[in-house]
Amino acid sequence: MDALQIHLLLNHVPIIGALVALLVVVVGHFAHNKAIGITGLAMYFVMALAVVPTYLSGEPAEERIENIAGIQKSVIEAHEDMATISLWIMLAAAAFAGASFYAQWKSMSSAKLLSTVFIVVAIGAFIHIGLTGHEGGKIRRPDLGTNE
User: Fold this and answer.
1) Cys bridge to 47: 18, 27, 125, 131, which one at CB 3.0-4.6 A?
2) What are the counts of helices (DSSP H) followed by strands (DSSP E) for the chain?
3) For residue 44, is it within any domain?
4) Tens digit of each residue's pLDDT (9 = 90 or more) over 101-140
5) Domain hosting residue 56, numbered range
6) 62-112: per-residue pLDDT in tens?
7) Buried (b) or exposed (e) across 32-69, using 16+ Cβ within 10 A?
8) What are the Cα distances from residue 12, in Å, to 49, 62, 110, 113?
9) What are the contacts of 58-66 at 24+ separation with CB within 8 A?
10) Residue 46 counted as domain residue
11) Main-chain phi, psi angles of 67, to 5 degrees
């Protein structure tokens, strides 16, 4: 398996996995079910960390495709710029997930607030990483739109 295949395989994990985990957290939050909430937070933490190998596989994937006819360097750069921001947003969401997990596990008074903050940050992270994925799709699928 080469770098491009690895990148294409990895790039859906943080998007889909984090969304599923976020939905589990939301269910636990609104159902006032600690076990579901903690499970979702643990899932989210792992899925959010999956953004690291996805991000790191991007540069080798870029090297494989940057000289292919029809591939626009500006589209690759737009995806790369968004991926850097997505990396940091997802890591921030992972930190909030970890803090919320700990607060819920220890039944701390801040658990509900941290869970709410996590949900807001995670929704923002999901939106941004989804847009990043869409930008990546433009690299090989110009019919999805261009940046110019």
Assistant:
1) 18
2) 7, 0
3) yes
4) 999 999 999 999 999 999 999 999 999 999 998 888 888 7
5) 3-139
6) 888 878 877 888 888 989 999 999 999 999 999 999 999 999 999 999 999
7) eeeebbbbbbbbbbebbbbbeebbebbeebbeeeeeee
8) 13, 17, 32, 30
9) 58/7, 58/83, 60/3, 60/4, 60/6, 60/7, 61/3, 61/4, 61/6, 61/7, 61/8, 63/3, 64/2, 64/3, 64/4, 65/4, 65/139, 65/140
10) yes
11) -105, 10
How do residues 1-11 score in pLDDT, each as one tens digit? 666 666 666 66
* DSSP symbols for 32-92: T-HHHHHHHHHHHHHHHHTHHHHHHTHHHHHHHHTTSTT--HHHHHHHHHHHHHHHHHHHH
- Whether 146 is covered by a domain: the verdict is no
Question: Model's pTM, two decimal places?
Answer: 0.83
Cβ neighbours for 16, distance < 8 A, ≥ 6 positions apart = none
